[in-house]
Amino acid sequence: MTHGLPFFTRTMLECQVPGWSADFDARGADALTRGAVDELAAFRTRAPGVP
């Protein structure tokens, strides 16, 4: 769910997802499962890993 090209590192070439990205994705998947559209829309203030 994340777009992190500005933060791309060599570690990612080895298919190691950064923790901040995995946390963001897990939260999004959970919100989708629950149908919590308002939570998804408020990602800038509620989601982990958002700078």
Compose a concise summary of this entry.
The protein is mainly alpha-helical and 51 residues long.
Number of strands: 0
| Series of H and E elements | HHHH
Helical percentage: 55-70%
Give the class from helix and strand content and strand pairing.
Answer: mainly alpha
3D shape = elongated
Let me know the average pLDDT.
82
| Rg calculated over all Cα atoms | 12 Å
Number of DSSP helical runs: 4
- What ranges have pLDDT less than 50 throughout 5 or more consecutive residues? none
Largest sheet: none
Strand fraction band? under 5%
Number of domains: 1
Euclidean distance between termini CA atoms: 15 Å
What does this structure look like?
Helices cover 57% and strands 0% of the residues. The two termini are 15 Å apart. The model has no long low-confidence stretch (mean pLDDT 82). The protein has one domain. It has 51 residues and is an all-alpha fold. It is built from 4 helices and no strands.
Spell out the key features of this protein.
51 residues; mainly alpha; elongated
